[in-house]
Amino acid sequence: MSEAEASRVIGVAKRRDFLFAILGVFVLVLSMGMLTALIVDLLVDGLARIDYDFLTSFPSRRPAQAGILSAWVGTSLVMLTTALIAIPLGIMAGIYLEEYAPRNWVTDIIEINVSNLAGVPSIIYGLLALGLFVYTLGLGRTVLTAGLVLALLILPVVIVATREAVRSIPLIIREGAYGMGADKWQVIWHYILPAARPGILTGAIVGLSRAIGETAPVLTIGALTFIAFLPPSPVQPEFPFLNFDWLTSPFTVMPIQMFNWISRPQEAFHINAAATGLVLIAMTLTMNAVAIWIRYRLRSQARS
């Protein structure tokens, strides 16, 4: 290739890179602009509605007296159930697939299905839960059923994140641990998992951030649109100090409460829905902030 031809090829490549960078910036600005416009619209409509009474009152047919107490409590309990089911199972499955599973066609099929399940529409999980958990197993339309269906929804995300985090650990760490006489489980438990915790935590929070806003699965299994009572408290003053009756209690969540209010014609209910959306965004950002803080602490401890 002559010098002129090389210069022409390099020039074409630079122009392509420049155009791709411009396109990327345009898409970024457009998406962030839409998100900012949505948040600003919610702030303008609903910020003034958020107060102590709104957070501690039950839903009501009178919009001025309506609140989201049952909705945010239900959301918190469902997310707690989802996290307790999905995160341990996802981590164990990811470790097994990455470290223990034999490399054969069965493992290949499992890996393909895990990746594909991450893109399945959430309504499919709702229909699965309705047929399996509600009708076949008889679990009813309860907090436990909602936690199970949302755990299934985010389980592929946690598995994939765990595998990627474990795979990113340098080989020299494993070789050093084996060289000191550690067996496979000791290497995973004492070296691989601590080093992979930031990546695993990121995947878990991404999954929970998706689950907290899902409406279709919990609506399919029969979450209530109007509920004026709270599930039993998970904590009790008597021994053993833990109460699990809340798992079998009916529930509602904030996305369904928003859907209920936004479908009404009164403008005051639309303001309540905007305020609920702000609270939901605040809960999601809080989860992400906690994850960022924990990840920062873990990385600081690893460096020291």
UniProtKB/TrEMBL annotation:
Q: Which family does it belong to?
A: Belongs to the binding-protein-dependent transport system permease family. CysTW subfamily.
Q: Does the keyword Metal-binding apply?
A: no
Phylogenetic classification of the source organism = Bacteria, Pseudomonadati, Pseudomonadota, Alphaproteobacteria, Hyphomicrobiales
Primary location? membrane
Give a single Pfam family match: BPD_transp_1
Q: Name one GO cellular component term.
A: plasma membrane
Q: Which SUPFAM superfamilies match?
A: MetI-like
The superkingdom of the source organism is Bacteria
Q: What is this protein called?
A: Phosphate transport system permease protein PstA
GO BP annotations of the record are:
phosphate ion transmembrane transport
**What is the protein's species of origin?**
Borborobacter arsenicus
Q: Which NCBIfam families match?
A: 3a0107s02c (TIGR00974)
